[in-house]
Design brief:
Elements (H helix, E strand, L loop, with lengths): L1 E9 L8 E8 L4 E5 L6 H9 L1 H4 L4 E8 L2 E2 L5 H4 L3 E4 L12 H12 L3 H14 L15 H13 L5 E5 L7 H18 L2 E5 L3 H4 L5 E4 L8 E3 L1 H5 L7 H9 L8 H7 L1 H8 L21 E12 L2 E12 L3 E6 L5 H8 L7 E6 L9 H4 L3 E4 L12 H11 L6 H9 L14 H14 L4 E5 L7 H16 L3 E5 L3 H7 L2 E6 L2 E7 H6 L7 H6 L7 H8 L1
Parallel strand pairs: 3-8, 3-9, 6-7, 7-8, 13-17, 13-18, 15-16, 16-17
Antiparallel strand pairs: 1-2, 1-4, 4-5, 9-10, 11-12, 11-14, 18-19
Keywords: ATP-binding, Nucleotide-binding, Transport
Protein name: ATP-binding cassette domain-containing protein
Organism: Streptomyces endophyticus
Length: 541
């Protein structure tokens, strides 16, 4: 169905091809997962299937890409629209209409389908993706995860033969991600749809893939095979595979179920070991002995139009604390972060940050107290080059020249100074926005989905930097669906539902008692309270 024949793509001004000499075949009715570190060209290959590369992005495509027999060099994206449905990393760039129902119908209108067919497919898709309650909502009022589901739904309604998905679960809560992946599996198995997907959160998707293509770093070969074959040699792998490698399991398990079956002897070994260290002691240094309050809310309420986004939120954040806000898409996590940074005025209750009321404080004063890395990093980026963004960040924060650039290099090496921010991948843009906010070293750091688009290596570097900040006394509050990040880094988890906090406590207590938010290691080794592969490795050592 999809063929890459000696494909190389070189963008204008780039010294080297982004992808080079790719030979790949995706059979009809299979789900193939593209894996590999950030920057190896996964999004470029996906764009070549839909025709966006090179017709929209520019650059030079050498070799040949065919989809259902059509050569993408001679067929522009609109001439492939009846065959290929594409969802990119940024849902907002995908939308054409204003409301959910109109967006689901738009693609079918473009293809000239009849109204009865359109009505039936819209209803099917609303039910399939759990969007029925949102059908009349303006897209601009939805959370990032809800927008992601609408974007996926809008390409499902025309019933394309090929689906191209770039990080489709990156903004989804665990339950919603599972629903979407189950839908994709049904399309593959029951309707013969061909799916080509790039995804960094392998713990979510690896069990659904028929084949995995591990894209090479420069000078390395492309590796294609079954998930088990590729994961045995891959430098990027989910915790379940990491635990299997550590324990020497053969074959390597790809699912929690199979890992639990193999884990009997490991659980016996660990039962004789010291319990995992108190989460307060994680990372370098200790949390300050006398913690002071950096942010507090009391009976906080926020109403956005007819929607009561937050209700009765009472929360305290102290120095050195890392707090994860978790919950379903639309639960109010991003709204709470926006209220803490002064972007939203409370409807009721109070909020203070560093002794100030955020929405009444000038931005110049507030930047010394709190910084927010939003879910859409482009909101922070306005210069023409990465170097100009870093220079502006140093100036705004009154930091030493080179501070922002140094942070960016620590987080994600290899981003050139002359690169335009719009040419960065979603993960790279997020990393740049994070470096800009960290330049001011605010006492309170707010992160909205900080690992979206990041590979495992970049995530590890981020964890190291955030641990150091917490050890220095900074407080970190992150809204995240990444349960593995919460297990690795946080001291405390608060779960939101329908705008209210329904659980708040130490990370091990909250995540091990929740099937949705438990990390893979906790599920495999339950009832023992191990959360991460690194904890197990230290205990066995």
């Amino acid at each position: 169905m999809i063929r890459f024949e000696n494909v190389s793509v070189t963008y204008d001004g780039a010294p080297h091809p982004t992808v080079h000499g790719i030979h790949l075949h995706v059979p009809e009715g299979e789900l193939m997962l593209l894996a590999g570190p950030s920057g190896v060209g996964k999004s470029t290959l996906l764009g070549a299937v839909s025709g966006l590369v090179p017709h929209f992005t520019g650059g030079t495509l050498a070799g040949r890409v065919t989809v259902a027999g059509r050569d993408t060099r001679t067929h522009k994206p609109r001439e492939l629209a009846d065959v290929v449905g594409t969802v990119g990393q940024d849902p907002l760039a995908h939308f054409v209409t204003d409301t959910v129902e109109d967006e689901l119908a738009y693609g079918m209108e473009s293809l000239g389908l009849t109204p009865p067919v359109m009505r039936r497919r819209v209803e099917e898709t609303l039910d399939l993706l759990g969007l029925a309650d949102l059908r009349d909502r303006p897209i601009s009022t939805l959370s990032g995860g809800q927008q992601q589901r609408v974007a996926i739904g809008s390409v499902l309604t025309p019933h394309p033969r090929v689906l191209v998905l770039d990080e489709p679960t990156s903004a989804l809560d665990p339950a919603a991600a599972e629903e979407v992946l189950s839908v994709l599996q049904r399309l593959v198995h029951d309707l013969g749809t061909t799916v080509l997907m790039a995804e960094h959160r392998l713990e979510r998707v690896i069990q659904y893939a028929d084949q995995v293509a591990l894209l090479p770093s420069p000078g390395e070969p492309l590796v294609v095979g079954t998930p088990a074959e590729v994961m045995a040699v891959s430098p990027v792998y989910p915790p379940v595979v990491g635990l299997g490698r550590l324990a020497g399991w053969d074959p390597l398990p790809l699912t929690v179920r199979n890992a639990r079956r193999a884990a009997g002897s490991l659980r016996a070994q660990l039962s004789e070991k010291t319990a995992p260290p108190a989460i307060e002691a994680r990372g370098p240094g200790q949390r300050p002995a006398t913690a002071t309050t950096l942010a507090a809310t009391k009976n906080l309420g926020v109403r956005r139009g007819r929607i009561e986004a937050l209700r009765h939120i009472t929360l305290t954040v102290t120095t050195g604390e890392v707090l994860a806000l978790m919950g379903r898409n639309g639960a109010g996590k991003s709204t709470l972060l926006s209220t803490l940074v002064g972007l939203i005025k409370p409807t009721s209750g109070t909020v203070t940050v560093g002794g100030a009321t955020p929405h009444k404080t000038t931005p110049r004063d507030l930047i010394r107290k709190v910084g927010l890395v939003p879910q859409e990093p482009r909101d922070l980026l306005c210069a023409d080059t990465v170097a100009a963004e870093c220079t502006a960040a140093d100036k705004d924060a009154a930091a030493a020249p080179g501070t922002c650039r140094g942070l960016l290099t620590d987080l994600l090496p290899g981003i050139a100074d002359a690169t335009h921010p719009r040419d960065l991948s979603e993960g790279q843009r997020l990393t740049l926005a994070l470096a800009i906010v960290l330049t001011a070293a605010p006492p309170l750091l707010l992160l909205d989905e900080p690992t979206r688009g990041l590979d495992y290596a970049a995530k590890s570097r981020l964890v190291a930097i955030l641990r150091n900040l917490a050890a220095e006394g900074h407080a970190i509050v992150m809204a995240t669906h990444d349960v593995e990040l919460a297990a690795e880094l946080t001291h405390r988890v608060a779960i939101l539902a329908d705008g209210e906090i329904v659980a708040d406590g130490p990370t091990p207590d909250i995540v091990t008692s929740s099937p949705s938010f438990a990390p893979q290691v906790a599920k495999i080794l339950a009832p023992q309270r191990w959360l991460t592969v690194s904890e197990v490795e230290k205990a066995l050592a």
